[in-house]
Specification:
About 35% of the residues lie in helices and about 10% in strands. The protein has ten helices and seven strands.
Length: about 300
């Protein structure tokens, strides 16, 4: 059995004619897919070229027959057949990498509880009192208990070593102290029980002018105890209660506003009230007490 072969020149000669004559089909066996492809090409009247796939590009153009080493490609009728393989040149420009220095990541310190996290967020610049040791705190509490005239202002703000038992001892000593005029216990984790003892001391104390209990753990019962002490205390001028970890209910707000209204010495108070009537009542009470104070 003889095998018919089709050269590239035969393909070009047949495709250059106006009527696009049918290309003779090789006598070799072709698959169904190949026969369908040739039929589709003839209906579309598309020029067919053969590009050899040999490794040697010089001898590839002389390959006269179809085979496994050739590949069909399709070119529109208006485009000329490629005579030589098209090559492209890519130029890669290498540049030095830019190194961006990232700031060192801070190690996250996980608080032991939500309470510690709350106080850590609210703590500002640490005063000297925050660095007091246990021995120094004991000396301070003893000075208040001994009623030392050299200690008129006691600031223990943000003191981390101050325990709840120390605040209770301060409350007992404050009841009989006659020299201390200002006490700052803000952000010291003062509890409701300690606030109740401080309220009892305010009923007997007659020299304290400023009491700062902001940012602590005083609950509604402690706030109500402090409000009740305002009925007996006639010397306290400033009471700071804002920023408690435990929110007050509307009943506690009403009790505090009523106590401030009955007090005649309090000229400043810091507290967050949600009830509009309680805020209005407390505002008029403070304004009334301020108007009664004689100008210097």
């Amino acid at each position: 059995m003889t095998e018919s072969r089709l050269s590239v020149s035969d393909v070009r000669a047949s495709t250059d004619s106006t009527n696009y004559p049918r290309i003779p089909r090789p006598a070799s066996k072709m698959s169904d897919r190949g026969s369908k492809l040739f039929s589709w090409l003839m209906t579309k009247k598309t020029k067919v070229g053969v590009m050899p796939m040999h490794n040697d590009t010089k001898n590839a153009a002389a390959a006269p027959h179809f085979g496994n080493n050739q590949k069909h490609f399709f070119i529109p009728p208006s485009s000329p057949l490629p005579s030589e393989p098209v090559t492209s040149t890519i130029t890669i420009i290498e540049s030095e990498p830019t190194i961006v220095e990232e700031p060192p990541k801070k190690l996250e310190q996980k608080p032991e509880s939500r309470v510690l996290e709350y106080f850590a967020k609210r703590a500002g610049n640490q005063p000297v009192s925050a660095q007091l040791t246990r021995e120094q705190i004991s000396q301070v509490v003893s000075g208040v208990a001994l009623n030392s005239n050299n200690q008129q202002t006691l600031v223990l703000k943000d003191c981390r070593e101050l325990l709840n038992s120390d605040v209770l001892a301060l409350a007992h000593a404050l009841a009989s102290n006659t020299h201390l005029t200002e006490l700052d216990l803000s952000n010291t984790r003062t509890s409701t029980a300690a606030a109740i003892e401080l309220a009892k001391a305010l009923e007997k104390n007659c020299t304290l002018r400023v009491l700062n209990l902001e940012r602590n753990l005083i609950g509604p019962q402690g706030i109500q105890a402090l409000a009740a002490s305002l009925a007996a205390n006639k010397t306290l001028k400033v009471l700071q209660l804002d920023g408690q970890y435990l929110d007050m209910d509307t009943n506690t707000e009403a009790v505090l506003a009523s106590a401030v209204l009955k007090n005649s010495s309090l000229t400043a108070i810091t507290v967050s009230l949600r009830d509009a009537s309680a805020r209005k009542q407390m505002f008029y009470a403070i304004q009334s007490n301020r108007s009664q104070v004689a100008p210097p």
